[in-house]
Amino acid sequence: MPAAAISSEILAKYEPVIGxxxxxxxxxxxxxxxxxxNHFGSEPNTNVCPVCLGLPGALPVLNRQAVDYATxxxxxxxxxxxxxxxxxxxxxxxxxxxxxxxxSQFDKPLAEHGWxxxxxxxxxxxxxxxxxxxxxEDAGKSIxxxxxxSATHTSLDLNRCGTPLVEIVSEPDMRTxxxxxxxxxxxxxxxxxCGVSDCNMEEGSLRCDVNVSxxxxxxxxxxxKVEVKNLNSFRxxxxxVQYEIERQxxxxxxxxxxxxxxxxxxxxxxxxxxxxxxxxxxxxxxxPEPDLPPLVVSHDFIEATRKAxxxxxxxxxxxxxxxxxIAPKDAQTLTATPEEADRFEAAAKKAKSPQRLANLLLxxxxxxxxxxxxxxxxxxxxxDGIAQAADLLEENKIxxxxxxxxxxxxxxxxxxxxxVYEREKPEQISxxxxxxxxxxxxxxxxxxxxxxYRAGKTTLAGFFVGQAMRATKGQAxxxxxxxxxTKKLAG
Length: 491
Ligand SMILES: [Zn+2]
Hints:
Helix content is 41%, strand content 19%.
């Protein structure tokens, strides 16, 4: 996970200060202020109407579902929800914004004063403040390439105009690229667990802008901040923060002032480029939206939403560790999305050993998928198949070596574990005298290890079990073998 860290020389002298703005599209059926479908990937300019095109006389009507979702996200992010918030017009001209303004919220946003806890390298937690969460609508999209006439024309797709968004603004509490990465990762997880967005960065349903500045260690005053846009993956967030810190330190070291500006991240060149300076910065001339009344969410509604909140990622992990005895590191991986966590839990409830199930899923199957650069969904072995394998292993009906061979066959033949196991039914040696003979030979051939074992180094039992397993080509009944080895070594 961590990228190359900022050098310790830089960190001894300077303190980076990082804040992040995240835009999240809400997963409503229709847009924020009209009945158009809120759908990614439709034919361009088909999900539009007079309201989202901003035609004269059209009036916005607020989508109830968007308010429900925004409130739920606010509470999940530990924000205080304002019972009366105000919509405002954010005025600017851009070709993909036919109205000439975006409906947003300004000085009275829906929610404020939240936080997310992120893990620290030392194994503790650090609290990152959330300044505010406000509702707004998205703009359309300018398409600069990929079309037949792209060399000479920019095309517009206004389907995205009016898509409901929440913008989540952090406090400038982060100090390292990894903290920034953790923050956006945790934020995404929480929003996903709330079910209010699909948080698909490739489709733009979650977008990040970061603000980076540096100041001399111990200084109170914040340095001049630079905003970096075009971060369409969390890896880009971390890399861009790292690059900006190093770029700014270099400038300060050579005595050049940092310019307040917006920069674009270029992931191919791993650097940022200046996009516009402060002189060209927008003055949005916010004023209250005259076509919408104040947004009122009652105390009762807020409390009912809080009560109905789904289980969030961190509490869920803690519960799963407790309930299934799985390792914290595994719990983290198994709960990346609520769907994955649900699937694992459904299987874990029936499994003879949930930890063994987790091991097979993450290491055996996960390892094979990673080596083949495949996604979980492309695995030939279903979770039921993995669960069956885990139970067989737990009951000593197959050895781990046999299991590996069976999994290899599943991948080779693109078949699930069940049919492969039925067909192959690996033989197992449960003949006590045959196994004893092998162990006797091993004991005779390794007198030194036997002596050490008897002197108290009992972990050497594993050595004998391993050797015996090898001698039987992995076919020995593991439980019986263990038992016989222990008995024989006891003398
Ligand atoms: Zn519309």
